[in-house]
Amino acid sequence: MKNEKTSLVFKPSLTTTAFGIIRNRIFKKVTSHSLNYFLRGGDLISVNPLTNGVHEPGLTHVISHFCENGYSDFLIDIGANIGLTSCQNGNRFKKVICFEPNPLCVHILKVNTEIGITDSLVEINEYGLGNEAGTYELWIPKHNWGGAFVKSSENSYSDEILASKDSFSAVVKSNYSVKSIDIRSTESVLTEKFAGLIDSGLTSGVVKIDVEGMESHVIQGLARALPAICNIVIVFENWDANFDFDLIEDAFAGRLLKTDIFRSAISDGKSANKPFILRRVLQKFSKQVLFPVESASSRLGDVIMVVS
Asked: What is the mean pLDDT of the chain?
C-alpha cells in the first residue's frame, strides 16, 4: 500500500502550554493534602475535600467525639451520597450501614468505601428511606450532587428552601438531573437492621441523616424501629427555621432525649446583633459549639440528638 504523508497535526500554543503547566503545578500544590477518594471536579461537595483534605470538618469532629465516648458500635449513614462521611469515620466503628438511592452517586460510593473502609465493616443499600415504600423522583442539582432531594408532597422543605440551599432563585427542572429512585419504609428496614446489629452485640452508635427535607419522616420511622436496648446519636442538617422538634420529641416518648444545635458561636448570643456581612466573615473563624434547641436563637444548622 502506498504510504501517504498524514495531514493530522496537533500543535498547542505556547501560551496554552505555559499556563497549563502553571495551573497543574498550582493544583498539585493546593490539593497535596486532599482526601484519597474519588471526587467530582466543580461539585460543591468536592472543594473542601480537595483543598483542605476534609469533608464537613465540624460534623466529622462531632461523629469522632461520640465514637470515642461510647457510641462506636455502628454508623448508619442515611443519604450516604459518595461516602465522604462514612469513609472519614467508618473505620472507627465496628459496622457501617449506608443507604443511597441516587443511581449516579452509588457507584462512586462503592468505590470510595472500597478505598476507605475495611470490606467486612461496610454494607451498602441502594435505596432511600422514607415514610412509605414507593418509587419517587430524585432531583439532583447539577453543580451539587450532595444536595439531591425527593420531589414529593411528603418533603417538608418549601421550594424556596430547596432552591436557596443550592443558590438557585427557584426550583427549575433544567438545573437538575431527575432520576427515578426506590424508597422503602424506614421503620421496617431499620427494624431489621437493628435486629441484626443486636445479634452481633452492637447496641450503641451514630445515625447520620442527610435527606434534604425528609428528615422528619425518617426520624419518626427510626424512633418506631429503635429497640429499647439501643442508644444512639442522631446527626442531621436542618435548613428549616420552623422544623417541628416537638413532633420528634413525641416520637421518642419514653426515652431520654437531648437535642442541641451545633453551629458557629458567632451565630448566637451577643454576636447575633453584629452586621450580617461581618457575622458571615467571623463565622469562618469562629469555634462551633452546642446550643440547646430550646434556647438557640436559630434552629438552622447541624442538629445533634442523643437518645438513651
From this structure: 90
